[in-house]
Amino acid sequence: MPFLTALVLGVGVLCLIDLVLTVGVIRRLREHQAMLSARPVASPPIVLPPGATIGGFSAVSTDGVHVSDGTLTEPVLVGVFSPDCSACHDRLPEFAERARTYPGGRGNVLAVLVGTEEEVAEQRRTLEPVALVLIEEYGTGLTEALQVKGFPSLALVDERKRVVASGTTIEDLGKIPAHA
């Protein structure tokens, strides 16, 4: 009988230790889950980040104006859009409105449409009154100079060809870093 009592007591102590350890592991997992949830999600930039310098480019707008990295003598607002992108359709009116009031007017706003003339016809009609419109293939001209990896891509580029602000929304352009 004393052997059976000792055995039951030993199993009971082992179960109690196992329960305490299991509760400790569960608490630790919850803490890690909370820490992972609180971490900001960092996605890779889809266009050159602020502070970067754009590469060289040369293009002619739809109305015959020559544009290149050498003609950037004032800060320029740049928007790159694709006809296949639903976010581009949503943000194009905001960009056009911003372009309408941008200092320097139409000559300081570049709208790059990636696609064929037929594919971008609707976007072109919206943007031509407020911007110099460039129609390019992806990975050429200004899309290559800005290292565009997604759409829409927006950027403010200063006269030194340096990106002052960039992102996918007009609000991103308002987040100009202190060193700019």
The succession of helices and strands, N to C, reads HEEEHEHEHEEH
Instruction: Give a count of the beta strands, DSSP E runs of length 2 or more.
Output: 7
* Portion in helices: 25-40%
N-to-C terminal Cα separation, in Å?
84 Å
Order the strands across the largest sheet as they lie in space: 5-4-3-6-7
Number of helices: 5
What is the structural class? alpha/beta
Structure description:
The chain crosses the membrane at residues 6-26. This protein is of the alpha/beta class and 180 residues long. It is 38% helix and 18% strand. The chain has five helices and seven strands; from the N terminus they run αβββαβαβαββα. Strands 5-4-3-6-7 form a five-stranded mixed sheet. A two-stranded antiparallel ribbon has the order 1-2.
Structure characteristics:
180 residues, alpha/beta, 5-stranded mixed sheet, 5 helices, 7 strands, 18% strand, Thioredoxin_domain
